[in-house]
């Protein structure tokens, strides 16, 4: 059933785009409403089926809201589609279900990514920003999410806040047995939220890097530095996470950026830039081969203390340099000096 609805959604969207007829929009909207209601109603009886239907509903919801805005596809259509995807993802996170722990990471990643795209589309719609400014905004958002992922995941998992008495106050009572028994579940939910936040941060940084480098002839040295430094900072941050999922997402960022840019450059006829993307991918693959043959390289504990400090200093230096370099790239310094 889900496959049939997705195919029907694709046909209706194609019909609407090709002909501009209202029937395509009505069909997509109907599919979105049916899948959304089915996902909410079926979840109570069959959590696994309801989860699958809720995930499938993201496609027609985004399509219907994007097609609801007349004109060519642009920031306005993207704004409404991203808002709908964000809202539906948050609804799915709030609906109680036996399968909730399994879908938390997915819907957290979708909600945060869509919210970031929604903000970027809104800024583009209001101020008509160049692509490099939109890309820098997405990268800054990704950096903030990565830094605050642990705190946000604990907040979204509703961890009980500790009561710290003031000097002279009586010692607070211990949490109730019900709260203590629920702590393991909240820890699992927090880990899932954390994986979702990291995945969303990586996806937003990939979108930001692609937005900056989509036209290589106009990027310049500063733009390439932002793209490379973002990839390096994201990969180096993997050393401080214990979760294998978070590490995998962070280490995948350079590969995703290089792969997407390779496809974009090849599709637009920029073959010299595509060759550069191929070389970057080759270097990354070679690095993985070296690490696979020498696993000690990937273990921070195998490094000496001075080398760890040097690596931390390099990571901190790249982190600190990104914000002023991006401010220069978007012309913020020039704007301030010319006022």
TrEMBL record:
Transmembrane portions of the chain: 20-42, 49-70, 76-96, 103-123, 129-150, 195-213, 219-236, 248-267, 273-298, 310-337
Concerning Pfam families, the annotation shows:
EccD
Top-level taxon of the source organism: Bacteria
- Stated name of the protein: EccD-like transmembrane domain-containing protein
EccD-like transmembrane domain span = 3-336
- Please provide the record's keywords in A-Z order: Membrane, Transmembrane, Transmembrane helix
């Amino acid at each position: 059933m889900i496959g049939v609805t997705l195919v029907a959604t694709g046909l209706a969207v194609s019909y609407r785009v090709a002909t501009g007829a209202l029937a395509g929009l009505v069909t997509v909207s109907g599919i979105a409403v049916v899948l959304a209601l089915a996902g909410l109603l079926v979840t109570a009886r069959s959590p696994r089926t309801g989860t699958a239907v809720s995930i499938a509903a993201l496609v027609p919801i985004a399509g219907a809201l994007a097609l609801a805005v007349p004109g060519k596809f642009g920031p306005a259509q993207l704004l409404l589609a991203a808002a709908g995807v964000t809202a539906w993802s948050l609804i799915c996170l709030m609906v109680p279900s036996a399968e909730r722990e399994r879908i938390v990471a997915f819907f957290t990643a979708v909600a945060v990514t869509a919210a970031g795209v929604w903000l970027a589309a809104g800024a583009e719609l209001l101020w008509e920003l160049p692509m490099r400014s939109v890309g820098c905004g997405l990268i800054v958002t990704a950096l903030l999410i990565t830094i605050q992922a642990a705190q946000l995941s604990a907040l979204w998992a509703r961890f009980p806040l500790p009561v710290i008495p003031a000097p002279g106050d009586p010692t607070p009572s211990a949490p109730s047995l019900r709260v203590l028994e629920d702590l393991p579940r909240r820890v699992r939910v927090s880990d899932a939220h954390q994986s979702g936040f990291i995945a969303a941060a990586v996806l937003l940084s990939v979108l930001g890097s692609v937005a900056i480098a989509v036209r290589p002839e106009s990027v310049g040295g500063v733009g390439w530095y932002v793209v490379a430094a973002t990839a390096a900072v994201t990969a180096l941050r993997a050393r401080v996470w214990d979760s294998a999922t978070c590490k995998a997402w962070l280490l995948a960022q350079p590969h995703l950026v290089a792969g997407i840019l390779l496809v974009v450059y090849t599709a637009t006829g920029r073959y010299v830039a595509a060759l550069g993307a191929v070389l970057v991918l080759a270097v990354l693959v070679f690095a993985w081969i070296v690490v696979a043959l020498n696993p000690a390289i990937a273990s921070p504990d195998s490094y000496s203390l001075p080398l760890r400090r040097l690596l931390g200093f390099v990571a901190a230096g790249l982190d600190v340099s990104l914000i002023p370099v991006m401010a220069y790239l978007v012309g913020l310094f020039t704007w301030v000096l010319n006022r």
